[in-house]
Amino acid sequence: MDKNYLSREGYEKLEEELKDLKTRGRQEIAEEIAEARAKGDLSENAEYDAAKEAQGMLEKRIAELENALANARILDEEDIKTDKAYLLSTVTIYNHNVDKEVKYTLVSKDEANFKKNKISVESPIGKAILGREVGETFEVDVPAGKLKLEVKNIER
């Protein structure tokens, strides 16, 4: 299994979600299934089918979280160097296509949150930024076409 590098905050967030799904989530699904069973014939009970499907999705997410946490390695942000863009680096990027600067923090896929400018190192832009140095200009293919980007600053 691949290691899953996370910040302390990201690890705790995943732990919290897992605990919630195992307790509250499972309890809610069990109640929905019991309620649907009480309505009689299960062979034509859409509510029962929906509750069982929701249960399957819940268990799948629980397994994903357990796997992510089992393979997690917590990175100490103090150890992140600023000479190159690494995981947990905050990188200021200049987008030549739209003449705009944006700051991204490079994170694992489990911590990605585009609204907070946290992008996964597995995304096309994240992969392209990883390992770059200040001043480097590069192109990256994204679904909307090619972007010409330049690393302006790297910080912890």
Overview of this protein structure:
It is a single chain. This protein has 156 residues and is α/β, with parallel strands linked by helices. 39% of the residues lie in helices and 26% in strands. The protein has three helices and seven strands, in the order βααββββαββ. The chain has helices at residues 8-37, 46-70, 124-129, and strands spanning 4-6, 72-74, 90-95, 100-107, 118-120, 137-142, 145-155. The strands form two sheets. It has a five-stranded mixed beta sheet. Helix 1 runs antiparallel to helix 2. The protein starts with a strand and ends with a strand.
Task: Provide the fold topology.
Layout: E1 4-6, H1 8-37, H2 46-70, E2 72-74, E3 90-95, E4 100-107, E5 118-120, H3 124-129, E6 137-142, E7 145-155
Parallel strand pairs: 1-2, 4-5
Antiparallel strand pairs: 3-4, 3-7, 6-7
Helix pairs in contact: 1-2
